[in-house]
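Please check this one:

***
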Amino acid sequence: MTADTQLRPPAAGDLAWMHALNQDCVPEVGDVTEAELAALLERATFSLVATAGDRGVGFIVCLQPGADYQSPNFQFFEAQGRPHLYNDRIAIADGHRGRGIGRALYEASFAHARERRLGRVTCEVNVKPPNPASLAMHARLGFEAIEDQTDPRNGKVVRMLERPV
């Protein structure tokens, strides 16, 4: 991460750029409206933004077990009955990828999960449509595959991942 990059909790004025960045990263992250992203942030138990100077360049949004969130991917991990911190989405702006921002956001989420004795961080990564860069990053961070899930509504395939903390 460069010296001018900072991590901090999201502030009220961050929603617009976070939504724009999210939409720039579709289909690697899920397509949401600004209102849906705001609702997700309200449910989140852990979220951070990354800024470079005065520009937002990344974010992560995570939920703990028991959150009121009906995402099939979150529900997959909930059904396992094991404590976890679920990363619903991480997004890094073009031109800022490969600079350690994703690693820094994840390291902060690992620390959060350890502090709360959640045991693991969970997430999913697209395999159809393919997202090889994200799969590689998650492998470097120590995530392991649990299984692949196919969404019957659209044929999208995601790989369920976990990393002990």
Notes: The two ends are 22 Å apart (CA to CA). The first helix runs from residue 15 to 24. The chain has a mean pLDDT of 95.
